[in-house]
Amino acid sequence: MPMPDATVTSDRLVVHTAAPAETQAWGARLGARLRVGDFVALCGPLGAGKTCFVQGLGQGLGVESPITSPTFIIIRQHPGPVPLCHADAYRIASGEELEDAGLTECLRDSVVALEWADQVPASWPQDFYLIQIAFDNDGRRLELSARGEYPTQVVSELADAYSGN
Amino acid sequence: MDHIHLKVQTSVVTPSDNLTLGIETSCDETAAAVVRGGREILSNVVATQDDLHAVFGGVVPEIASRRHTEVVTMIVDKALREAQVALADIDLVAATQGPGLVGSLLVGVSAAKGIAISYGLPLVGVNHLEGHVMSNFVAPPGQPPPAQELFPTLCLLASGGHTSLILMNWFGHYKLLGETRDDAAGEALDKAARLLDLGYPGGPAIEQAAAGGDPQAIPLPRPRIEGSLDFSFSGLKTALARHVDEHGVSGTGNVADLAASFQEAVVDTLTRNVAAAVQQHRVKQVIMAGGVAANQALRRSLTALGRSRGTPVAYPPLELCTDNAAMVAAAGYFTVQREGPSDLAMDVFSSLPLTH
User: Fold this and answer.
1) Domain limits at B131?
2) Theoretical Cys-Cys bridge with B154: which of A73, A75, B250, B283, CB 3.0 to 4.6 Å?
3) Could you tell me if B131 and B164 lie in one domain?
4) Is B65 close to A51, i.e. CB distance below 8 A?
5) Which strands sit side by side in the sheet containing B163-170, from one edge to the other?
6) What is the structure's pLDDT at B59?
7) Interface membership of A65 toward B (CB under 8 Å)
8) Is residue B345 in a domain?
């Protein structure tokens, strides 16, 4: 069972963002590289900017419909060149309920971004991207990591681009 | 098609009854209702915890299409029984087809399709948001509905999942003037309740905690999007989170002040955009819908706004603010008059814009 901190085996990328637009820009950079079936787990406290990051992810994927918090809707689907399934485990007690709500089907035909993913670790697929966001003075600390061959490669590429290699 | 073809088979009801069975399963609630002539609520049933326990024997899935599946038939039966009608008396079946959780929507729409096919009835898909608007135009027999037929009417729909300003030019004729860009108003209240450890459901908990608190105690932002009637509540939520992070929460008095300050910021933000929309669109009436419409501070604020502008303000009773099926039946009735019934193969939609 994947757990947020323990099982990350790849390179990781840690950045500081000063404004929501910067958090979104990192989402867009990642989104542009994602493929159908990719799973993005988002963790961080209330107000950290998880939805903000997913809004950027949607831009990177080419999704046009507005992305808003899915907390009460649970799963919102956004059509696009690479469709996005935006899910939220905030109100969910068990992964079984999230699967019942259609999470597994979503992974077949879209990218899945799951907010409050740490609430349902058993629902994570084998490969995943993990985005951990924390308050950091006036801005945010973003940590991107991954498990699996392709996700690890993507995070390394982003890390290389960021460090100018 | 301009009218509904009646199919009345018993002596209990008369041909003018035009009975619509409404089914709502778009999110958490499983609900069914019988509405006469698109206006009179004969029954309005939402599955209660007792109903759920009767079916599940104690372990109720929190959020699940399975929960809807197991309960929907029972709730439809209950709605028919309370209305004292049989399925054979029904003239039209309406079900919410979006927006909402696809798996949950499918349960209600499939149940509606089954009834429509078995009884040879027209079927109509309803937009959940239009349903909320229509909750202001229905009432039990002999009672006037909350809203008058004054158009254009402006509806503030505010709930856990939605925050929208809808201009209604006539039944079925809507224009979306603004909506939230991030969190819904009800969601912001719910998350503030969690930050303040007030329990669930958060909206009523915040309202209760705010009583006796000073709404000016803590300065919180009133996020505004220039040149737009859209809303944004995530910055407000973050401001409270940061305040709690830095200062902590100390004592009941402090919680009351924080709750009151937060509630006031939400109410101010909603009221400001309603005021702007009233002015920009020469609105003749303001109505409210969604769970947040039950908030007394919001009702007071919009009522005061209406008084100062000479604009009547209406809101539905609590059971029609939250998700229900009477609103779905009413919206379905008017949709069929306008557009005819939906195809029996109709689909459900996670996102479904309000059009016309």
Assistant:
1) 6-144+320-339
2) B283
3) no
4) no
5) B173-179, B163-170, B153-158, B285-289, B313-314
6) 61
7) yes
8) no
| The predicted structure's pLDDT at residue B75 | 96
**What architecture does CATH give domain A6-163?**
3-Layer(aba) Sandwich (3.40)
A29 in contact with B, Cβ within 8 Å: no
Please report the DSSP string for B106-162 in residue order.
HHHHHHHHHHHHHHT--EEEEEHHHHHHHTTS-BSTTS--SS-S-SSEEEEEESSS-
Neighbours of B69 (CB within 10 A): 19
Contact with chain B for residue A83, Cβ under 8 A: no
Residue-wise pLDDT for A54-103, tens only, equals 999 999 999 999 999 999 989 999 999 999 999 999 988 778 778 877 88
Considering only CB atoms, B65 lies closest to which of A45, A66, A100, namely A100
What is the pTM (predicted TM-score) of this model?
0.91
B100: left (phi over 0), alpha (psi -120 to 50) or beta: left
Low-confidence ranges of chain B (pLDDT < 70): 1-16, 49, 57-64, 356
Residue B348 lies in a domain: no
Min Cα–Cα distance to chain B from A104, Å: 12
**A46 reaches B (C-beta below 8 A):** yes
Residues B187 and B237 grouped into a single domain: yes
CATH of the domain at B248: 3.30.420.40
| Contact criterion met (CB < 8 Å) for A135 and B242 | yes
B90 occurs within a structural domain: yes
pLDDT score at A8: 46
B344 is a domain residue: no
CA dist B23 and B96 (Å) reads: 7
Residue B306 CB: number of other CB atoms within 10 A? Answer: 19
B182 contacts A52? CB cut-off 8 A: yes
CB within 8 Å: B159 and A92: no
pLDDT digit string (tens) for B198-252? Answer: 987 899 999 999 998 999 999 999 988 999 999 999 999 999 999 998 888 887 7
Task: Give the ipTM of the model, two decimals please.
Answer: 0.88
